[in-house]
Amino acid sequence: MATSAPSRTTHIIQHVAFEHGGVIAEALRARGHALQVFQAGVDDLRSIADHPADLLLVLGGPIGVYETEAYPWLKQEIALIRARLAARGRVIGVCLGAQLIARACGARVYPGTREIGWAPIVPTARGRESALAELAAANWEVLHWHGDTFDLPEGAELLASTAAVPNQAYAIGRQVLALQFHPEVMPRDIEAWLIGHTVELGKAGIDPRTIRARTAEVGEAVAAAGRRMFARWLDAAGL
């Protein structure tokens, strides 16, 4: 009797509950990926290294890569990502995830210009040829929510920038996609972001009603473009 091929697997490292896989997870499930979520700082990450998945997805969070004294488990996470990269494993990083990949590659991560809210990115020529090209359908608008930035890792190709933050997205061959911004967010989840980041919004002087209103206007279009973008990258990565 014929048996179906085993599904692929994805390990997801999540730093705060409301910053989850979103449309990336949708694209993965549509391809038959079994998803296993690990809470950074809570779950033992050794099984990620001991039993590698087809893809490692590292998500965002409000801490800094360089805060290893306050959050010592970051050292284990960086070492895990470094080993994954050395083994030529596929990795997607979003926001903090992109910063962790950069640090694992030996690049500097440091406080930069804070960007919070919906705004366009500017793709490079390489970005227009990459999976990011799908974001053109949403006029390149994405959700930004970060205060740190990073130097481009050696061997990486820059895919997108903003005027304030030059390194917004990069790729390392077909192995790595790293995004400083958040095309994975589902519009229905924005209220959780506004609640979870209320202190940061207050310190930045940002009215949550502004983000809520803009999400209602562009959120669905950006999420749809994000689904296509991640699907295109997964296709190119053989996943």
Automatic annotation (TrEMBL):
Gene3D superfamilies: 3.40.50.880. NCBIfam families: PRK07053.1 (NF005458). PANTHER family: GLUTAMINE AMIDOTRANSFERASE YLR126C-RELATED. It holds the Pfam family GATase. InterPro entries: ChyE-like (IPR044992), Class_I_gatase-like (IPR029062), GATASE (IPR017926). This is Glutamine amidotransferase domain-containing protein. GO terms for cellular component: cytosol. CDD domains: GATase1_1. Residues 24-189 form the Glutamine amidotransferase domain. The lineage of its organism: Bacteria, Pseudomonadati, Pseudomonadota, Betaproteobacteria, Burkholderiales.
